[in-house]
């Protein structure tokens, strides 16, 4: 496929299960995303150019290639769904990916960043296209009622037994890594360059991408740096929808552990001890002033205290109190300011309780990191054109330009994903993070009839991925890769 024939056409999608939304209904749906900022402009009805004969031929070949493996791919998805694994524990999942990619002829590297898998396929001269999916599940007890629902319980890395399930769709994201590999191997005569497929561990604790980098992804393991980098994630919009946005999409994020130290003692005599619980409580109140009084109110910043743990019984003042804090921020500089503010507040609170020695000062540890997801505006605009011409999307949200019969949005959400840590600092790389709808259309219709925009949301125990959405997502990702790698 050449790089010059990119028109547009209204019409049905590659996937027949579509739910074309008007600009108004798209606005209603997207405005319910928690915390999302949306800028709305009128949709355009400009005339469309007919897709080229080459594009029509490519789309036909794409259907044939993806549909040939669709049943097998959906069975892989169901298997991964029934056997979820937590971050840095994805040994079985990694084994499935490695086996599938080896069978396709990829050079496979395993154990990167503990459980990460990379497949490399060289197919002549050309750019490097990297596609990433995340493998880890969540400590949530599944309540979907699916015949392949998870009943798994494991002892996590902290020694606690928890239920495990894929209530964020990472099983679908992992399956797409394999599915895109299968499709592009079948279509090797239509592209030239190097395809790199990444199955990344531990996205939920936002540690996996950095772990792969720290383990020498591009150095010790010799993985080529990408010219194009793409990640895709499912969401509770109807199967057959695609969400694109140019510029900043997700915030950066960090996980912070804070430990306060005291002397401990009898609950009846607090005057002779130093109480870490009281220190933690005072600090938690002051942490809330970081966002409200220290951060630019025109920029997104969020500080959430997700865990407080101290003591074991009524009448014993413990020696330690532990907090787990989640940060979201719009810029790297803002994140650094939030972390330094947490350190300052924690130490000043400790001093106010009489702590003076360095070894008793609060410990502040950064456990995970995700840079802001900032999509390449030019490439996202091109992707929108390619998907429209290939009839591969029925809902396209693009921050730079109106797409036919669809509203123009600038979507910024205070969510995070560590995918772009894989390309942090690489000059010239084009990045794209894309959402695809994966909720069964009948469930979406029923929810809306009942006055709800979504039938479920990510991280809820009833989150469902429509297996047909994986077939659809494979076509979306593959046509984007073919355009980037086109001969």
TrEMBL record:
It comes from the Bacteria. The keyword Cytoplasm does not apply. InterPro entries: Amidohydrolase, Bact_exopeptidase_dim_dom, Peptidase_M20, Peptidase_M20_dimer, TAT_signal. Residues 252-350 form the Peptidase M20 dimerisation domain. This is Amidohydrolase. It comes from Ruegeria alba. Keywords: Hydrolase.
